Queue: 2 jobs
Job 1
Amino acid sequence: MDPQDLFFILQGLPVTLSISFLSFLIGFLIGIPLSIIKQHSAIGVRLLAEGYEKILRGIPVLVLMLAFHFGLGGIIPIFRDPYLSAVIALGLRSGAYQGQIFLGAINSVGRNQMMAAISLGLTRWQTFRHVILPQAFIVALPGLGSEISLLIKDSSYSFILGVLDLTKHADIVRRATRSFLLPYLTAALLYIMVTFPIANYLDKLGSKFKTKYGLR
Amino acid sequence: MEEIILEGRRIKKNYGDLEVLRGIDISVKRGETKVIIGPSGSGKSTLLRILGLLEPPTEGEIYFEGRNVYAENLDLNKLRAKIGFVFQEPSLFRHLTALGNVKLGLRYVLGMSEEEATKKALETLRMVHLEEWKDHYPAQLSGGQQQRVGIARALAMDPDIILFDEPTASLDIELTWEVIDTMKELAKRGITMLVVTHELGFAKEVADEIIFIDNGVILESGPPEEVLYNPRTSRAREFLKRLLGE
């Protein structure tokens, strides 16, 4: 393996990061409403939300990707694209996880502040928006950090669909150079170098604000 | 002066089989300070939450400025903005400074501009002598200061009445005075108040009427000298004796 190969492996990183970022975003957009639904909706809707969570958390994300791309690709055009199949599979599952993270965080804010907000005349939505959510977000930061790490790592499954991510690039180098271990070690190192600082930063940020606001 | 601001008629509240309130009639006129006393578990806090429109009664009616709140289907959020509430437990918004806490309702319920809200919030913090603490977060304030910010938060909305639910109950003794003093100042300014408290000194000094509640009913009510020094019922006598540690 020479420097050129290292550079080639590095070129897979943006794809890995963009899959992770986009799927995190999808998960965020699903997770927040999911956590609200689980607390406030009628029993039927709540069961639906819980079913979604249970199913998405029970299926290996690789199976989900394969099912989307190879299973549904013929029917639903968007799944013909392996990149989007990976993003959507990871995003849907992340929604289930983030729903859990936010639910715990929302519950940690507590009834007293909610009552205080209601007593001022704030509507339920205003209370959520201005009192609950800002604090829940801080409490959720460490959990969100682990979730991002998980997405970055699990985005590697997408290489099976043919996505040219970090893992795929390492695999290509392995085949081309017949150097078996080094390309993967390089990829592994890059995964750690990306996931560790993100998770660590969000963890620290969460702790900092928690101390400042005296949150648990 | 004689206008009744808040009134509850035949208020009952059950939680499952438990009867917490068993038919309470109560009213507060503009400018009045009324104090509710009674043993813990007597239903005082429940009554206050019901009058504050934070939960509906099982039976009975609430009138705000003469209008039947639940029968006329009035907008509860609008009415709650006119009824201040100070809680027993720490209830400040922990991600906001003292100033931010007071401003929130002004901005989003009363719809004031940022400048207006800031001006009004500062004025109100000055009234509870916490202007210098405006940029502190709740976690950086003492329990007594937090309660005073809570009072300012309610007061800033210019409510028609403020309800206090044992605002000193979760405070250390030495911190209760500053809160009690603040409440006395408000009473003397003519703010209409309904206060659940065990602070008999406060009751004696500022209450126009003291109401003794036990077991979900009003056992006595009247001017402080009557209820505190000359209770008619043995339940009230026992309660006061225990409270005064005699």
Job 2
Amino acid sequence: MTRFLIRRIGQAILVLFAASIAVFLLFFVGPGPNQVARTFAGRLGTPQRILEIKHALHLDQPLYLQYLHWVGNLLQGNLGFDYYKGQSVNTVVAQALPATVSLVLGAAILWIAYGVFSGVVSAVRSRSLLDRGFTTAALFFYSMPTFVLGYTLIFIFAYELYRVTKFFPFSSYVPLTTDPWQWFVHLILPWLTLAMVTAAAYTRLTRTSMLDVLGEDYIRTARSKGMSERRVIRVHGLRAALTPVVTLAGLDIGTALGGVIITEQVFGIPGLGWTIVQAIGQQDLPIIMGIAILAATFVVVANVIVDIMYAVLDPRVRLH
Amino acid sequence: MSSSPEVRGRHAGKPAVTSGSAAGTATMELPPAAKKIEGRSPWRLALERLRKDRAAKVAAGTITVIVLCALLAPLIASWIGHGPNQQFIDTGLDAEGNPLAPSGTFFFGTDSNGRDLFIRVLYGARISLVVGVLATLISVALGTFFGLVAGYLGGVVDSLIARLIDVVLSIPFLVIAISIAYISHPGFWLVVFVVGVLAFTYPARIVRGQVISLKEKEYVEAARALGAGPMRIMFIDLLPNVVAQVIVYGSLLIPLAIVSEASLSFLGVGIPPPTADWGAMINDASGYYQAGFWWYLLFPALALLITTLAFNILGDSVRDAMDPRGAGIYE
């Protein structure tokens, strides 16, 4: 297990290293140092200021030194300084993170609960009317672009049914610390949007996985021992069937924490995804780079956690 | 491309397996019989299964209609007399300069620039379909190549490609895509390229897995014994045997590419205006639809939804048809 851990974490570091080079090249080499300094200086940058920034960012040095400097800062937890807003990127990210975390965790609870429930019901009552309903709904929402669903929900619940559903605000975000009730109410529609489009994959995965497991010999053994069907499914079926679902959930949550760009954009939630879209509109490079590398870190860390969980659940994985 | 919950790339369910060994039995010489017995290839069997699938027929019909709309868009436009980017300042907007509701002149109403939404939705189909298909071709070609090489050569090459995939998957798709669109100016080919290249990881993984099991087969051993080099084995012997899988997977990548393109345009980093594009139209409508201009959002959104739904249904049916074991699961 220790060897597996070391190898897995080594791989993760390698991937992050490569991702940092990719992000660095994309932004520093792509536009060229002069353009970078000019962009960092913002619209009002004087030649004097541009020179200062070039020096501060080590843009007058060879590429590898520039990279080392940038990564050195990253390793110390410094995502950079945003000249456009006159703030450190860490501050901007710290402001945006709670909104994204609220959105993602709430939605994840919904999509996992619904996905697993519908998948299990579909598998256990295979080919029933309920199964058809769930699988058709899964296909429908799987095909649904997030922004189409988001605007549809806003249109129905926040506008058309306004008289009945007065409590649905149509956009923006209220921090949990400001007003927990308003926080909850403002997030209902975004949670539903993100959860519905994501849950479809879980319904299908759980259904397939559960059907596979229910065909196994040990399930037949459990049944022939006279175990109740409920217990067979809950104790023997579900535990084995949920391993791939846990994997998918870990990866999806990791990815989503890096910014649920479209949901945040549709509902005006100032999270990481919304911030990066704003930053692109404002040509605000440090923010884009900071969030990109942060998002990559979330994904890589989620991958490691999922692999470790998998190895704990299923010892065969450690060998590969 | 990372499977963010927004641009959903992970296809749950089992990938189809149509192994090459079945082809051998189907083309075997048949004993002379009184009644002529026809050999049926796996392809024909799949096609026959597909023909019996009602959902597949509806989906294929819908896709045909969408393709016709895209092809005939200029004809319909000239017949009605409204260009896709033509602004009807006098007849297409009301006194306050707001969009007009659907009518006999403007079937789907007009947008905030007084343009005919019906014509623009038709033209939008062209962008969606062309980007969807071209991007899928790119990702399937790249994915098949990397999957073959990684699976067959194994070792260091396999590890390198696996890490490359990890890196591409580590940065969320939309983050990379909007970043690239930002540093180089957005345009049609950039969108095709970005959407296509970033999605190569999915076919690559599938093909790699398939090749790892196929390379242990006798025919590969025979080819190697005859002195065939790795290039020949990969591209002449193995490639035809993964084609079925690639087709199944490719058909499921098209709707993904269409949604990716629409998402980029929705975020303003896709196909630049004034080109008619569903994602961009939905973005334009987002500031209007709540104020009673429902048609502005409804028609492009419906067009996009119907298109992705039709491709997903057809893709599912193709998978079921090619993998008899899983057939009927989603019937």
